[in-house]
Amino acid sequence: MPEHFGYTNTIFGTQSTVNGAAQDYAFGPPVGGTWRYTGPDTYFVVDENTGASRFNGDPTNEQVSAQEQIGGIGQQTTEIGGIDRQIIYDYTFTVTDGTTTWRVTVIDVDLNNDDDLNDAGEDGYFLIFPDGMPPADTNLTIGGIVDNLDSIAHVDLGASIVCFAEGTLISAGSHTIPVQELDTGDMVETRDGGLQPIAWIGKTTVVAKGDLAPIVITKGTLGNDRDLVVSPQHAILLNDWRAELLFGQEEVLVRAVDLLGHDGVYRKTGGTVTYYHILFDAHELVMSEGIWTESLYPGDMTLQSVNPRARAEITELFPDLAQYGKKAAPCLRAFEASCLLRAA
């Protein structure tokens, strides 16, 4: 089964400048120079071969190795404009404001799939910030290259998935079913629509390390009957008067990763974890381990976090995703979730 690794905290290389000019990331930017970027962050997914855990680079400079090419045993791609493009890790350098230092990881995309990175815009197509986003529109000082190996672990750069861990009990009304035993067409209890049939279900197995490691919400922490284990980006419904006071909504969705620091919530690392995606005809809240949590929402970012075969199946089921509908409840951003938890 293919592996896929989603990246947030990312911009396009064209959003950045070095000493006020566009930078050719085929070469490391000059130490001591001024680096800055403008504009919003973006998101992309690397689709890998079964069992892959490392983002492979270019041991032969500016070339896509045969094994990473489309059809190779270690095929590495990302989808841009509806086409799978070959993608490689290049190198990592740093920038600083004098107090905080951020790593900047240079990712090259073979836009025309000609097995080299010599064409315009291919070097540094994406820039990843493994330590979080530095401030936009701010002059930062360039440090040296800190990693230029032939590969790096995906989890060391950060990646995410939205789904339930194997073993999670899902309510089917009168009884519960382990998520791995569910199939397309099975009826599942939803908060707003009663029993609803599953339109699609998929799974992914990853190394439980770094940003891919599951979040555990221990029994009773949020009223759950057992430990709830979900991917970091999976959202849980919270009903709290403070949410209405702060955000004008009594019920809000909060991503599991944003609950870290709350008593009874921790990240579980080690071994592997199998995550399951459940999709309905609309975004639903399902009862998992006794509390309401979200189903898969096939928006642009979430749809990118499933492998190409799964993505094709979903788009066949829902050819006009723009008409899929809104989320079942508003989802808080990280800083909003932090405000809510501090107020609790």
From TrEMBL:
Residues 162-300 form the Hedgehog/Intein (Hint) domain. Pfam families: Hint_2. It comes from the Bacteria. This is Hedgehog/Intein (Hint) domain-containing protein. The lineage of its organism: Bacteria, Pseudomonadati, Pseudomonadota, Alphaproteobacteria, Rhodobacterales.
